[in-house]
Amino acid sequence: MAVSARPRQAFAIIGALGLALAATACSSDDDSSGNNAGSAECSAYEKYDGHDGKKVSIYASIRDTEADLLEQSWEQFVDCTGIEIDYEGSGEFEAQLQVRVDGGNAPDIAFVPQPGLLARFAEAGKLKPASADTKAMAEQNYSPDWLKYTTVGGQFYGAPLGSNVKSFVWYSPKTFKEKGWEVPTTWDQLIALSDKIAADGTKPWCVGIESGDATGWPATDWIEDLMLRTQTPEVYDQWTTHGIPFNDPKVAEALDRAGTIMKNEKYVNGGFGGVKSIATTSFQEAGTPILENKCALHRQASFYANMWPENTKVAEDGDVFAFYFPAVDEAKGKPVLGGGEFTVAFADRPEVQAVQTYLASGEHANSRAKLGNWVSANNKLDVANVANPIDKLSVQILQDKGTVFRFDGSDLMPGAVGAGTFWKGMIDWINGKDTATVLSTIESSWPK
Question: Where are the strands (E) in 153-231, listed by range?
Answer without folding.
Answer: 155-156, 160-165, 168-171
